[in-house]
Every structure is written in structure tokens, then in C-alpha cells.
Amino acid sequence: MSLLVDRLERIKMTRRDFIKTAAFTAAALSIPTGGLKLIESLAETQTESKTTTVASGVTLPQYIPTNCGMCGGGCGIKVGVINGRPVGAVPIEGHPQPGLCGRAASLPWIYDNPLRLKKPMKRVGERGEGNFQEVSWEQALNEIAAKLKEIVSKYGYKSIAITYHDVCSYETSIFTYLLGTPNAVQHVSTCHLAGSIARANVLGVAGPTLVDPDYENASYLLLVGRSLSTGIMGQVKRARSNSKLRIVVVDPRMPELSFGNAEWIPIIPGTDPAFVLSLINVVIEEGLYDSRFLQKYTNAPFLIKQDGKPLTEADLKDGGSPTLYMVYDSLTSSLAPYNKASQPALSYEATVTLKDGSTVNVKTAFQMLRERASQYSPSDASKITGVDPDTIRRIAREFALYHGVADDTWYAAKNGNEYDAVKGLLILNALVGNIDAIGGLVFQEATGFPSMVTLVQTPDGKTVAKTVYGATMPQEMLGDATQKRVDQLKYKLTLGTFDAVLDAILKDDPYPIRALFIIGTTPILRDMNASKVIQAYKKLDLVVFINVLYQDDADYADYILPDTIFMEREEFISTKWTAHAAVQLSRKVVEPPEDSDPREAFWTMFEIARRAFPERAYALGWKDEYSDYSKYEEEFAPKVIDSKLTAVANKWGIDKDYLRSNLESNGFFILKKKSYYSKPYKSSLGTPSGLVEIYPLSALASGLDPLPKYVPPVYTIPRNPNEFYLVNSKSPMVSVTATILEPAKFLEDRTIWMNPIDAARLGIRDGDLVQVESLDLPGIKAVAEVRITNRVREGVLYTRAQTGGRRASRLVAMKHFSTAGINPDYLAKDSPLPIIGAGATNSSVRLTKL
Amino acid sequence: MVRYGFLYDESKCIACLACVVACSTNNYEDHMSENIPNPYWGTLATNIRVVLKDQGRPEQLLLSCQQCERAPCVEVCPTGASYINKSTGLVEINYEKCIGCKACVTACPYNARWVDPIKMLPMKCMGEACKARVEKGEQPFCVAVCPAEARLFGDLDDPNSEISKKIASTKTTRLKEALGTEPKFYIVRG
Predict the structure, then answer these.
(1) Tens digit of pLDDT for each residue in A361-379?
(2) Which chain A residue has the Cα nearest residue B56?
(3) What is the pLDDT of residue A226?
(4) What is the CATH number of domain A723-849?
(5) How many angstroms separate the Cα of B114 from the Cα of each of B47, B64, B87, B185?
(6) Fold for the domain defined by A193-445+681-701
(7) What is the pTM assigned to this prediction?
(8) Closest C-alpha among A688, A717, A684, A720 to residue A701
(9) Which of A661, A727, A728, B132 lies 20 to 30 Å (CA to CA) from residue A7?
(10) How many Å separate Cα A122 from the centre of its chain?
(11) Given an 8 Å threshold on Cβ–Cβ distance, is A88 in contact with B119?
């Protein structure tokens, strides 16, 4: 009987009681001096009265709009809060990029997680042992600054490097000026780099958010090496609201999307370029392309000389323009500059006499593409890709007939050769004329969102750095900040190749890097060859790790500094993943837990600079009084946001208060709806010709083959019966943060997937332990359980990225669930593509049953 | 009087599991620190069970209480704790009457009930927070958070409700119909 009473008592400990307990905890929050105004304004929106208690007595949370920071996506979600504690989230309806996924749903777990970094810590043992002692902010910042000064006096400003993730990239541009170094190098090489370079080549815009399929209006969506289920649920929402959309996914493993109605075409890893070239081959040979679009809006009719360069007016006559590209006009049967021809021929080949009397053979870019693609007939491509020739033909025909759109990719398949695949995909979109068309590949409307720092010329000819909030750093103080980054010296087109930073650390190549700030990111779970990352960490004179949770990289830090979570601060950004021009405001939802003292990375970096290089911090508008964090929260942080709001309001002619109040209540503001058929129809693209370049002249100028081609992936191709490709990707539950939170323990996968045919061949059963050893990095091994599944192609093993195989000392000591499985980055060869700098985190391995 | 039902569109689901996690955070936040919050299913404290089939054509079904019209869990309950709420049509538990005998957990042909390790009592969809949302005229959490439009909830007796329109216009199935349980949980197969 007493047991039953006890049970009844426990059931009575309902949601309301839980909430009251949480309220008590929240009430005990220490309020920093000077922060009262802020707390009051928070209280206004977070009191019990704003929550709802229904007749049954259950209290429902109040919802406050934020930009989700559970991955780098920045989706619009409303965080539910009851008495100062986050309790869940719902999507923001009507938001141009609404959430949410399993990561965002997991956010209550991050708030007071045992792995949460609470106070600054200083290393006491050797790097890698993970022994730290808690220190004051004052001590940590003073010591870091002293060390920085010492390093800069020996090696110069550029010996400092910063690596970071998108979550705070807007602010990060100022860090280079604060510390005088150019070397802020992101995760790009193992994410969107290949796609961004290809996009810049073909369409004249780089970042992955600037061009995207028009999901809500498309008829046919081709995803090669991509899966809609990786992140950005707004894309999913738009695709799923479109009942006529057919989706085809080409991937060595079945993405989550194919549990639903997406057709999955299993392909041999690293052969995407051959598959795409074969689609191009079929579209051209079967005449399924849009000739009018190609003639008018692309450089397909450009005449190309034998040396690969375009024939220009300057080749033909003295004083001719080197940017007037020549075509053959079928109407006049003569050569003409491309912008003068009435009917530029797509197919033409001739010998042309140049102004010096010499002759040269020329043919159209379209013809060159046709010849290149002819090397990849469906039967030839099938031998490379493992995809049936009839399937290739069918997909090509469907793509053309449905007026399809191919995703231009980010976080693509990771074989190091995606540049050619994406270039081919962009060309494929152009072939069917589906650029900036309804249901096509569309350009994002520009928000004109202000840059944090802009380099401007003064009337006296000097270059100064101006911040959005009005501070100016004079030319003589810029230090090395305006030089090329260390990775750009090695890979001239890269937007960020961290491997080059590692080379600078390990080999002083091209110069020494001695200090590293790791902000909101985890290179060990992000880059190629994680052992090399660790080796580099060990050689540095100073490693500072700024984050929310204790991750693998923290073990190698000299100082660990706790950052705030997105819902503990206010942020104002442009909406990334939408074709509309839109901005979004993330409001402060909760105070950090009472036993913690996290500070925004922005404040932390300014305070380090104020101690190390005070003149730099002051020049960028910092004051001594901001060392009081509450003063910063009360004055400086709102000033930065207000200046961004002012810039946006001025640009669009909107009343700032109106903009602000809309943002506060809705979380977003759409500045301009997508207007189709804009580029290249009404205005030029950023390519050299202003047209879509199926034969990219900028690629040619950079020393790259302008046409796509298939080169094998950078890792060794598996040949023997016990050798496999090892591919990885994310699921909608995966981010470095989300995969160490409790839901991932039960809902994520830390196994190695194997096809049943391979399993039968090797006598492996579901749940067996296997060892995989890198074919390219001798001695690098990892162990995991096998899951036998038809979700992976024969000859291929698959594992999640950023999920298992964690080695952080704290996680190991806790026997944390994330220590099971493998981190594929340890097995991946550090071999970025020359010129471009894109790398592979897929690899090949030898498998042994344990 | 309404007769609520659910629809799960497997063909649209991207298996992001937002619904599974949101059910847990909102209905069972007092289980967040438990080692195995739902030992009965070996997963989170959530009313949605992930059923994964890896062989053949891989499939994943997200399964929760089928809100049966003729519910075996109600029929076997010795105290009348499990009942069908006549004003909503939802299968509910009156914990003042529940003695924790678990007959309902065993009787459910869908394995849609689990035993709360803290309270040692059966749990099922909907949780308290979801019921409160519905009381307020909002969608339960699993429906509200879904980014893929894969879930619907509404009045099956209202021909103009989204769910009724979808059922009328799409081929749907119900699980184990042969048992005569008359589930109010409709599935669009992927």
C-alpha cells in the first residue's frame, strides 16, 4: 500500500511542481551590478503571466523568437521558457527560414548540461591530459594577453590564427583587426568550399546561401552528394509544401529523405563528377537543352582558341577590347562580339586569322563541353560510378523534361573532387535554362546587411578600417590584418583551408603560427587527419578554446573560456537560407545557469585585445569600463545591434523602431520578396562576361581546367576484399553540440554501416565489433560496432560525422555514450586540392573483424 | 464534441526526429537527468517509438498511441483508469485510479505504452503538455515542430479539418486493422 501511495505522490510531482522548482533555481540567479535594466526587460517578457496555464492546471511556456544555434544553420525558432529555463522550441510560422529539427528540439539539454563550460579554466598538466583548474576571468585574460604579446613580439601579428564557425562569423571579422592578423580560417575546406568556388566560376557568386533551388516551385530536384535532411529545415519545409516535387538523391548511402518519397541512387563514392558529366552528355546528345537560353544568357557560343583562351576583339584588331568575347553570328555568317550577335551559334568550328596574320583554330565553348561530356557516355560513366547506364539516361531525360533543378551544394560529399561535380551540376542547370526561373536555381535577393568592418579609402589616400558602429582603425594600426591569409598563400582560391594553418604551425610553412583561438568550433571533429590537428595543437605556444561544451579540442587548450549559448544573448543577422531579402533578430531568452559565468566570445576577444594591444581595442571603440560584463551587455552589445538595425533601416527606408518592434515580436522581417528572372536577364552576373559561364573564364585565369572532368578522389581506391570506402555525413540530429546531448544517446547512430552482401561475404553479423585502418594514414585505426543495413551501397562503409569516437578526457572519464563509434576525421588523408584547397573527410580503410 | 485523430505521412518524413525529442522535452522534462529515461523502450522518455527496418527496402516508422475506438488497453484496465475521453475521442489515463498493474501496457497491440521509471506508471500519447496545448486550441508538439509537413492532428468528424481532407484525398492505412481496434492514427506509406 505504501508503495502505491509513494507512486501516487510521485505522479503528483507534476509538471507544475517541476516548474516551481525551476523557478526557485532561477530566482537564485545572481544579478550582476549594472545589469538590472537588462534583467528587468527580460523579466517583462518572461514572467509567469506570459506563460499560459490551462484549465487542467498545466503551464505552457512563453515563446521568444531566436536564431537557432544548435548548428550553424540559424533557423527561426521560438524557444519556450518557463521561469527562466528553456523547455523546448517550436518553429516560427511565416519565417523565411523556419526550424526545426532534432538538434533544435534537444536544446533544453544544453542549458545546464554537465559538459557545459562554466568558468574560465587553465591547463595544469600536459596538453592532452585534460587537467585544468578554475581561474578567474581576470587571471585568464591577463595571462592570455601577456602570452600573446610575447608571441607577437617574436613572430609578428600574423603568427596568431583564429578558427571559428558561422554561428559567430559576423562578429569574427573584427577579431582579425583586434589582433592584427589576417589568419581567421574557417571550416570551409571540409564544407562548402568546392561548391563555392564552382559557383563563383559559373555564376559569379560564391557563398552557398546566395543561390539555392526554388524548392517550393520546383518540379524535379536532383541532389548529388547532398541531402535535404542534413540541416536547414526551411528548405525541407518548402520542398514538402510542394506536392508535385520529385526528388532524386545520388549518394553511396541512403539519406533519411529516402525513408520518404525521394528516389535513392546508390553511387560509388567520389565518382559524382563522372555521373554529372554523363547527365550532361545525354542532355546534349539527345538535344534536350534550352538553346535559346544558352545562346543568350551563357557563354556557350564563345569561341575558344586552341590554348583554351577565349577569342576576343583584341585578338582580331588593334585597339580591340580584350573583354569583348567573339562568337559566330549565324544570321550574318560572320564573327561578332557576343553582345552584338543576333544569332550566336552554339556549334561552330573554324580557323581564324588573328591581327598579326597568324591563324588559330577556334570552336565554341558549347562544342568543347560537348566533346568533354562525350568521354562520359552512360556506358562509360557506369563503369566509373557503378550506376546503371539506363538509370543515368532516365535521370538525364527526366531532369530535362521536368525542367529540373540540381542543388548547387554545400556540405557535399566529401571526396576532395567535388569542385568538378558542382561545376557540372551548375552547367546542367544552365543547359535546361533553369537559372533564376520559377522552380529553378535562384539567386537570393541581397539584404545589403552591413559588414562588421569595412576597409575604406580616406580622402588623403589612406586605408582605414571602419566598423558598423562608427569606430575607425587608422592605417598604421592595421598590422598584418589586411594581408593574405596563410591558407590563401597556399591555395589561391580558398575561402578557408585550416590544413594550411596546421602546416604553418608544424613546419613554419610559409611562416610560423604560434597562437590559436578556437571559437565555437572543433577542428578535431571537422577537419582532415585529426591526428595532425592534435600534433599542431601540441606545438603551439598558446591555445585558447572558447565554446559552450567541453569538446575534444578542449583537452589541448591552455585556457578554456566559456561562451554563452545563442538563447543567452541577442543577435541580429540576415536570414541565410531564403531567396527573399530578410533579417532576423534572436532575442535573449534566458540568463545562463546560476553556477556559471559564461561571456560572449565577442567580449572575451575585446578584453584580451584590451590587455595585449590596448590601442587596437580602443581604436575599435572599446572602453575600459566594458571589462565589467554587465556594462558591455548594457551598452556596447546593444550599440552594435542598433548600428546594424540603423544601417538596414536606412538602406530600405524603413523606420528603425518599426523594424525593431517587428523583429522583436516576430523574430524576422522580410525586406524584399524574391523577384524571379532577375539575373542574368535584367542585370549581369559577377562572372567576367556577366553571363552564366558554362566555360568559366575565371577558372581558366586561376589555372584550372574550365570544363568539369572526373579525377579520382584524393584517397586510395579500395581494391582488396577487406578494403572499403568509408563515407560520412550528418543526419538532422547531428551537430558537434547536439550529438553529445542526451537525445543523441538514444536516437543517434554510432555504428559503422555495412551492406548485407559484404557482411555475408566476410562473415560479419549485426553488432560485431570491427577495426578499420586507414589505407593512407598507416597505423590510424578505430573500432566500432557494425550495423548491417541496405542503407549503404556494397563496398562502402558509412558512419556519422561529428557523432561518435569522441576522445575528450572528460567524456572518456564519464564513459560518455559519444566515445563509442568512430570519428572519421582521424582516418581522412590531409590532402587538399591544389589551387582550391577543398579536402576530403571520406577515406578508404582495411576492415578486420575483432 | 470532437473526435481527434492523427495522421503520419511516412512519404514526407525526413526522420529528423524533432517530434520524438520535442515530445520528450515538453512532456517529460523531469526525466532529463535520468540515465535511461524510458527503459521499457530503451530510449528517451517520449511517447513516440522509432521503428526502424534495415533489411529489404529500409523503412522507418514513428509510432505512438493509435487512439483506438475499441482500445484493448481500456478493455483490460481493472480499475477504469484507462478510458476514452468522450469529449475528445482520445485514449487517456486517470492516474488517480491507476494501480500500475501494466495490463494496458501488455494489452496494447502497438507497443505504444511505456512504463515511467520514476512514477512506475504507464505513459502514453498525449502527454500533459500536449493535452494542454490541445485544450488551448493548438497542435500537439509533434505536429507543431514537424518541418516536413509529415504530421496532422485534428477532428475526424469535421470534414473540413486538414486531417479529414487529407484522409479523403490520399491513400492511407491503419495498423493491424484486422484486430478490430479501429485506430484513429492514419498512415501515408512512404
Answers:
(1) 999 999 999 999 999 999 9
(2) A790
(3) 86
(4) 2.40.40.20
(5) 8, 10, 25, 18
(6) Dimethylsulfoxide Reductase; domain 2 (3.40.228)
(7) 0.94
(8) A688
(9) B132
(10) 31
(11) no
